[in-house]
Write a structure and sequence with these properties.
By secondary structure, the chain is of the alpha+beta class. The protein folds into 3 domains: 2-166, Alpha-Beta Plaits (2-Layer Sandwich); 170-227, Orthogonal Bundle (DNA polymerase, domain 1), CATH 1.10.150; 245-394, 2-Layer Sandwich (Dna Ligase, domain 1), CATH 3.30.1490.100. 36% of the residues lie in helices and 20% in strands. The protein is built from 15 helices and 15 strands. It has a 5-stranded mixed beta sheet with strand order 5-6-1-7-8. Strands 9, 10, 11, 12 and 13 form a 5-stranded antiparallel beta sheet that branches. A 3-stranded mixed beta sheet has the order 3-2-4. Helix 10 (209-216) runs antiparallel to helix 11 (218-227) and helix 12 packs antiparallel against helix 13. It binds a DNA duplex through residues 30-36, 38, 52-57, 59, 72, 98-102, 183-186, 188-189, 216-219, 240, 242-250, 253, 293-295, 339-340, 342, 402.
DNA sequence: TCTGGGGTCCTAGGACCC
DNA sequence: TCTGGGGTCCTAGGACCC
């Protein structure tokens, strides 16, 4: 038995935690560079703001609607996610963190009423972190996803938790769910399924698994069986090691000079190195890529990438930067307006299982390089922009993203901690330990 | 003026091995 | 006249997820 706990409108909800005045107001969070809408509060959804809409296209229409617009603040979201997961870890014997805002819990064999347990989880997470969540409970992950969806849409009489087995008529419910709303079925497969006369979740559950296997492969066959209640996707208790690490950004403005691209690519490579080290991995290859904007109508279009082997495998930021810049030299074309670049670290291997090179031409990358990187990481431990950087990273800043409306890093940066003023009477009530919930009225 | 940034899995086909 | 049966590895492309 699985429970899927999913944060409601996660990024928008995070913005509300430290700005209670946003409660009840439409809130949208924008992607990097303040580009597209990537999270919407219920009020924003009610205004008809579509997911992934480019903000500049809908901004005008929404003027006067009182929409609170936030640049994305990943330091905040990452930290609140960590707190939510920490609370959830105490709610079940095992859990799988599925994404920044979702978590599968193992509910197998738990005594008592599972719906009540789900409601209790939702209440606890809300009270301890400020984040509203929904809980779907079912014998398979796919059905738990659907149950969660129903709970989120207010289809659960109990509130934010819904147990599949408690539905009065599960078949009828499946018949009311479009096939594209099933986890793992998106637009393309949806269209092909519809062409076969499979338009709802119920039809998919009833379809011939052999046909699905033949037409779509094992993935859709599994989804079919999961809809029938046969669990095919187990809980992954230990996250498998990363296979690749990507660091890329769209630029705040178009970049034309090699020097500035080199600065951006150096920053990406250094950041990739840091990610490698926190995950105790080494890369055996690095790829650097860049392209002009696919939306620009004037000027030539260009996209290219270059791959370089890293032998021996490395997590040394200096070597990563050198390799990335060498790759960049090969693909840079003068006279173009670049919109985005990135660095991809590939063929990752555990750092303690690196294959050495018998006749190494690369000096270092042994204990000495490791110590240097450890030192760098200690100096840069505080989140935010690193304290110590490679000189190459500093040779241009114009590529950096636009983030005009970013909220403070309330929980990860000393200088941005919120100041709390609380009503004294209310605090004394809370301190007296009266039973029940007493949230003091606070202003920030 | 302005359009995100990460990831994974599966399959088919080709090249190669004994 | 006749030409096996069993594998692995790699890559590109297509699909999906948040």
């Amino acid at each position: 038995m699985f429970a899927l706990v999913d944060c409601n409108n996660f990024y928008a909800s995070c913005e509300r935690v430290f700005r209670p005045a946003l409660e009840g107001r439409p809130v949208v969070v924008l992607s990097n560079n303040d580009g597209c809408v990537i999270s919407r509060s219920n009020e924003a959804k009610a205004l008809g703001i579509p997911m992934a809409a480019p903000w500049f296209k809908i901004e005008e229409r929404l003027r006067g609607c009182g929409v609170a617009v936030c640049s994305s603040n990943y330091a905040l979201y990452g930290d609140l996610s960590r707190r939510v997961m920490q609370v959830l870890a105490g709610c079940a014997p095992a859990l799988e963190t599925y994404s920044i805002d979702e978590c599968f819990l193992d509910f197998t064999g738990l005594p008592g009423d599972l719906t009540a347990r789900g409601l209790d989880i939702a209440r606890t997470v809300r009270q301890w972190t400020g984040i509203p969540v929904s809980v779907g409970i079912a014998p398979t992950k796919t059905l738990a996803k659907l149950a969660n969806r129903l709970a989120k849409k207010g289809r659960s009489p109990a509130g934010p938790a819904l147990e599949w087995a408690r539905l009065p008529n599960p078949q009828e419910t499946l018949a009311g769910i479009a096939v594209e709303d099933v986890w793992g079925i998106a637009k393309r497969w949806g269209a092909r399924l519809r062409a076969l006369g499979i338009a709802q979740a119920q039809a998919l559950a009833a379809a011939d698994p052999r046909l699905l296997r033949r037409e779509f492969g094992v993935v859709v066959e599994r989804i079919c069986r999961e809809l029938q209640g046969v669990s095919c996707l187990p809980l992954e208790l230990v996250p498998p090691p990363r296979k690749q690490i990507l660091v890329s950004r769209s630029f705040g403005e178009r970049i034309r000079s090699f020097a500035e691209l080199r600065a951006a690519v150096s920053v990406f490579a250094a950041r990739g190195g840091r990610k490698l080290r926190t995950q105790r991995l080494c890369a055996q290859a690095i790829s650097v890529f860049l392209h002009t904007s696919p939306f620009d109508v004037v000027g030539p279009r260009y996209a290219n990438g270059a791959m370089r082997p890293l032998d021996p495998p490395t997590r040394d930021s200096g070597r990563l930067i050198r390799a990335a810049v060498a790759g960049l030299e090969g693909i840079f074309r003068a006279g173009l307006a670049y919109q985005r670049a990135g660095v991809l670290l590939l063929d990752l291997v555990p750092a303690d299982a690196r294959q050495g090179v018998l006749f190494s031409a690369v000096p270092g990358d042994g204990a000495r390089a490791d110590r240097l990187m450890d030192c760098l990481d200690v100096l840069n431990r505080v989140p935010g922009r690193p304290a110590v950087r490679y000189a190459g990273e500093l040779l241009g800043e114009r590529w950096r993203m636009r983030q005009r409306r970013k909220s403070p890093a309330c929980t990860t940066r000393w200088s941005e901690l919120p100041v709390v003023r609380a009503d004294a009477a209310c605090l004394s009530v809370a301190a007296a330990g009266r039973s029940g919930v007493c949230l003091p009225r606070i202003s920030l």
